[in-house]
UniProtKB/TrEMBL annotation:
<feature type="binding site">
    <location>
        <position position="86"/>
    </location>
    <ligand>
        <name>substrate</name>
    </ligand>
</feature>
<dbReference type="GO" id="GO:0019631">
    <property type="term" value="P:quinate catabolic process"/>
</dbReference>
<dbReference type="GO" id="GO:0009423">
    <property type="term" value="P:chorismate biosynthetic process"/>
</dbReference>
<protein>
    <recommendedName>
        <fullName>3-dehydroquinate dehydratase</fullName>
        <ecNumber>4.2.1.10</ecNumber>
    </recommendedName>
</protein>
<dbReference type="InterPro" id="IPR036441">
    <property type="entry name" value="DHquinase_II_sf"/>
</dbReference>
<dbReference type="GO" id="GO:0008652">
    <property type="term" value="P:amino acid biosynthetic process"/>
</dbReference>
<dbReference type="GO" id="GO:0003855">
    <property type="term" value="F:3-dehydroquinate dehydratase activity"/>
</dbReference>
<feature type="binding site">
    <location>
        <position position="73"/>
    </location>
    <ligand>
        <name>substrate</name>
    </ligand>
</feature>
<dbReference type="Pfam" id="PF01220">
    <property type="entry name" value="DHquinase_II"/>
</dbReference>
<feature type="binding site">
    <location>
        <position position="113"/>
    </location>
    <ligand>
        <name>substrate</name>
    </ligand>
</feature>
<feature type="active site" description="Proton donor">
    <location>
        <position position="102"/>
    </location>
</feature>
<feature type="binding site">
    <location>
        <begin position="103"/>
        <end position="104"/>
    </location>
    <ligand>
        <name>substrate</name>
    </ligand>
</feature>
<comment type="subunit">
    <text>Homododecamer.</text>
</comment>
<feature type="binding site">
    <location>
        <position position="79"/>
    </location>
    <ligand>
        <name>substrate</name>
    </ligand>
</feature>
<dbReference type="InterPro" id="IPR001874">
    <property type="entry name" value="DHquinase_II"/>
</dbReference>
<comment type="function">
    <text>Catalyzes a trans-dehydration via an enolate intermediate.</text>
</comment>
<dbReference type="GO" id="GO:0009073">
    <property type="term" value="P:aromatic amino acid family biosynthetic process"/>
</dbReference>
Length: 146
């Protein structure tokens, strides 16, 4: 099984972006640690980041066509992108898991982060555990798809 792990805008800046919120690890560090956890549970990870909403949407369309489960950190798009929500709904309506993840706990932060337009169409949500949010999501996808 391959799991598509997508990260949205500004997550390519991890390491130097608000380290008091997101820590000092870079996205490349996160990818490396996720790859080793994935190997331990016997899955491959297709790890990608983009700052572009359309690109994320097209990746979700391709996941539907290829029947690939998805772990998605929608970053700021979480809070307002109905286009991304509709694309996420295509994934879960197709019977594929889509787990929404966040490094931080958005509910303990600014009010605008308390709303997720993605959660209502996600299979589940994991937030607040840093890079472990991604690892837990991958492990859960493995439980779901076997
Ligand atoms: C985030 C939380 C979002 O509110 C924020 O816009 C991000 C990252 C997280 O992983 O904690 O860019 O999705």
């Amino acid at each position: 099984t391959t799991i598509l792990v997508l990260s949205g805008p500004n997550l390519g800046r991890l390491g130097t972006r608000e380290p008091e919120v997101y820590g000092h690890a870079t996205l490349a560090d996160l990818e490396a640690s996720l790859a080793s956890s994935a190997e331990a549970v016997g899955v491959d990870i297709d790890f990608r980041q983009t700052d572009d909403e359309g690109e994320l949407i097209r990746w979700l369309h391709a996941a539907v066509d290829a029947r690939t489960p998805v772990v998605l950190n929608p970053a700021a798009f979480t809070h307002y992108s109905y286009g991304l929500r509709d694309a996420a709904a295509l994934v879960t309506s197709a019977g594929l898991p889509l787990i929404e993840v966040h490094l931080s706990n958005p509910h303990s932060r600014e009010t605008f982060r308390h709303t997720s337009v993605i959660s209502g169409v996600a299979t589940g949500v994991i937030a607040g555990f840093g890079a472990d949010s991604y690892r837990l999501a991958v492990e859960q996808v493995v439980r779901i798809v076997g």
